């Protein structure tokens, strides 16, 4: 075989056939002749069969131009491709939930409103904060050049605001000592944002992400307080209070909208429109991670509906190109949005080998000092990595886990854009961090196909917007954080 390495995935979408080179993230629309020639190179048809349909000259012209591409290493190549993975291994990601307790009772909460931590210490003490951060900074993650702390899930961080303040003081001290910067992010349910707290966050440059699942009916369906009351109005009022306060910086006003997609989600397009209408410019829409018997989970039965919702979303992005606009797609171009991360990687021509950095450059610290790969694993003894007293497990299975080492992923055409399933989701669904959830794989592959076609359309119909988005993302990528 002249070209032993095949990096081609062909697929049909609407009336067109495409060939995707998943090593170089290149896409070509194929006419019938070229599609038949790909059959020939994949050895699913013979030259004699081609001759029954096409003249010798036609075949020659097509195979000559294809082989020019193959000689450059595209689609079929003589040598194996050397990948350049651009994941950022310089940043240590630390998740520090100040308290495992919540004032809401959202029906899909993975932490069961903090109750999964029963019997364990639920709240960080001020003394623990310094000890913990020093351990992370000077021991567990000492080789990193910069850090990010997330006050995040497993509870509502603002229920223990003193810990947030203290983390900020300690991180300033550590910066003075080491000159290694620390970025702080607060992910909150948005109900407890008082003027005093907002002022503090603003003065201390703490980024804010607020959970908001859509309009009032969509959001309040699931995100209610302990008395069963919807929380939408309170949150939207708080967002407006921040947006309208002239004394606050743009940094604080740039609130991120955090959305969980469930079986009850009605429309992704409407969520984006809604969030844009209340001034949220950056949105992350993530698929819920739950056992399949939960009424909110994405299952075999409701999978077609979710795919349909992603179709509507991409149709909407194609439509906005009619007016040379990229306003809405721009909102999701981050590495946490399920569809946006794929478009982002395609724009930056950036292949990945991991779903996330859990257990590698990411760690979650529980209030009792135990270390876990990420928040979702907190309380799962089997996956504990150690504790802040320096007692670390000898084997950390996450370190070796990549799309190349994980069987189903290592043979999947979507791997370099997907990076693998969320390890916690794999555990919930298949009781193993090594076995991806097939339902999510199907959504992922569907979204990748749609994202590829969108990118083609963007490049052809709105080249200046394509350039603008690439520049924007490169600028963000090159910024320290
Ligand atoms: S789609 Fe599924 S099998 Fe393919 S890389 Fe992603 S998680 Fe792995
Ligand atoms: S394992 Fe899943 S929940 Fe944890 S960081 Fe990775 S993607 Fe997120």
Describe this structure in words.
- The two termini are 47 Å apart.
- The chain has helices spanning 32-41, 47-53, 56-71, 126-140, 161-178, 195-203, 216-220, 232-244, 250-253, 268-277, 303-320, 327-331, 340-348, 397-400, 407-410, 415-418, 423-430, 438-461, 463-478; strands spanning 5-6, 8-13, 16-21, 26-30, 76-77, 91-95, 146-151, 182-188, 207-211, 256-261, 282-287, 362-365, 370-372, 386-387.
- It is of the alpha/beta class and 481 residues long.
- The chain is built from 19 helices and 14 strands.
- The strands form three sheets. Strands 11-10-9-8-7-6-12-13-14 form a nine-stranded mixed β-sheet, covered by helices on one side. A three-stranded antiparallel β-sheet has the order 2-3-4. Strands 1-5 form a two-stranded antiparallel ribbon.
- Helix 5 (161-178) links the parallel strand 7 (146-151) and strand 8.
- The structure holds iron/sulfur cluster (2 copies).
- Residues 355-356, 358, 374, 376, 422-424 line the site of one iron/sulfur cluster.
């Amino acid at each position: 075989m002249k070209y032993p390495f095949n990096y081609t995935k062909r697929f049909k979408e609407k009336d067109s056939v495409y060939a995707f080179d998943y090593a170089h993230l290149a896409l070509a629309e194929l006419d019938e002749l070229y599609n038949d020639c790909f059959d020939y190179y994949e050895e699913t048809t013979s030259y004699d069969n081609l001759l029954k349909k096409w003249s010798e000259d036609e075949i020659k012209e097509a195979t000559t131009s294809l082989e020019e591409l193959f000689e450059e290493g595209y689609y079929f190549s003589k040598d194996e491709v050397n990948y350049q993975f651009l994941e950022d291994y310089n940043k240590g990601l630390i998740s520090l939930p100040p308290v495992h307790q919540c004032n809401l009772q959202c029906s899909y909460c993975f932490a069961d409103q903090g109750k999964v931590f029963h019997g364990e210490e639920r709240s960080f003490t001020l003394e623990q904060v310094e000890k913990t951060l020093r351990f992370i900074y000077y021991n567990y993650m000492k080789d990193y050049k910069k850090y990010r702390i997330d006050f995040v899930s497993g509870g509502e961080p603002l229920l223990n605001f003193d810990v947030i303040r203290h983390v900020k003081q300690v991180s300033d001290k550590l910066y003075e000592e080491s000159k290694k910067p620390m970025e702080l992010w607060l992910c909150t349910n948005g109900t407890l944002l008082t003027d005093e707290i907002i002022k503090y966050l603003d003065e201390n440059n703490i980024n804010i992400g607020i959970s908001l699942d859509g309009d009032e009916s969509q959001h309040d369906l699931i995100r209610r307080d302990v008395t069963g009351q919807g929380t939408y109005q309170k949150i939207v009022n708080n967002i407006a209070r921040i947006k309208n306060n002239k004394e606050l910086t743009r940094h604080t006003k740039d609130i991120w909208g955090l959305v969980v997609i469930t079986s009850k989600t009605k429309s992704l397009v409407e969520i984006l429109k809604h969030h844009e209408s209340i001034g949220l410019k950056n949105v992350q829409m993530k698929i819920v991670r739950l056992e399949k018997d939960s009424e909110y989970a994405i299952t075999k039965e409701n999978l077609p509906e979710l795919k349909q919702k992603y179709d509507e979303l991409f149709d909407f992005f194609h439509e906005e190109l009619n007016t040379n606009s990229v306003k809405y797609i721009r909102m999701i171009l981050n590495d946490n949005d399920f569809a946006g991360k794929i478009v982002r990687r395609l724009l930056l021509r950036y292949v990945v080998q991991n779903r996330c950095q859990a257990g590698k450059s990411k760690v979650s610290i529980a209030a009792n000092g135990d270390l876990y790969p990420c928040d979702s694993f907190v309380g799962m003894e089997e996956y504990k990595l150690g504790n802040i007293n320096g007692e670390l497990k000898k084997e950390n299975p996450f370190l070796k886990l990549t799309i190349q080492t994980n069987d189903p992923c290592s043979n999947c055409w979507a791997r370099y854009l997907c990076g693998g399933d969320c390890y916690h989701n794999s555990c919930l669904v298949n009781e193993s961090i090594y076995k991806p959830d097939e339902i999510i794989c199907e959504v992922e592959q569907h979204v990748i196909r749609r994202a590829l076609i969108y990118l083609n359309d963007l490049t052809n119909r709105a080249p200046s917007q394509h350039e603008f988005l690439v520049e924007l993302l490169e600028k963000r990528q090159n910024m320290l954080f």
